[in-house]
Design a protein that fits this description.
By secondary structure, this protein is mostly helical. Helices cover about 75% and strands about 5% of the residues.
């Protein structure tokens, strides 16, 4: 009998965010207006973040996992502010937008780094979950 290993939720989050990145890249290639492409991309990042946050809060110990905090930080300090800034400054090119002394491209670079940190949180929690499952199986 073959024992199948169940896929932990953190791997699902990794897959979801990888799909979001692929969709965003496709949107920016297919949608000719960069401003509208950024709105759709923003909805994807906000929607995936809210979905993961909702799913995580269904677990009683969600505050103990780096993934919850990583997504929360990405949502509050990255996805939502950049989306709002793009809408607020609709008539200005994003590279001309300034917020708290940072330019649009600097904010976007910071957002990319926060996104990577969030993905690292998923990897870490996935690894820890796998270790817990191995210990319970023994």
């Amino acid at each position: 009998m073959k024992i199948t290993k169940k896929r932990n939720r953190y791997r699902n989050y990794l897959s979801l965010e990888a799909l979001v990145i692929l969709l965003v890249m496709g949107i920016f290639r297919l949608v000719p207006d960069v401003k509208w492409a950024s709105v759709v991309a923003g909805f994807l990042f906000i929607g995936s973040s809210l979905g993961i946050l909702y799913w995580e809060t269904r677990y009683p110990d969600f505050k103990k996992h780096a993934s919850f905090w990583g997504v929360l930080v990405f949502f509050i300090f990255s996805a939502l502010p950049i989306f709002i800034l793009r809408l607020w400054h609709w008539d200005i090119a994003f590279d001309q937008v300034q917020f708290l002394g940072f330019s649009g491209p600097e904010l976007h670079k910071t957002s990319n780094n926060i996104f990577i940190l969030m993905m690292v949180c998923f990897f870490a929690d996935s690894y820890l979950e796998s270790k817990r499952e191995q210990e319970q199986a023994q």
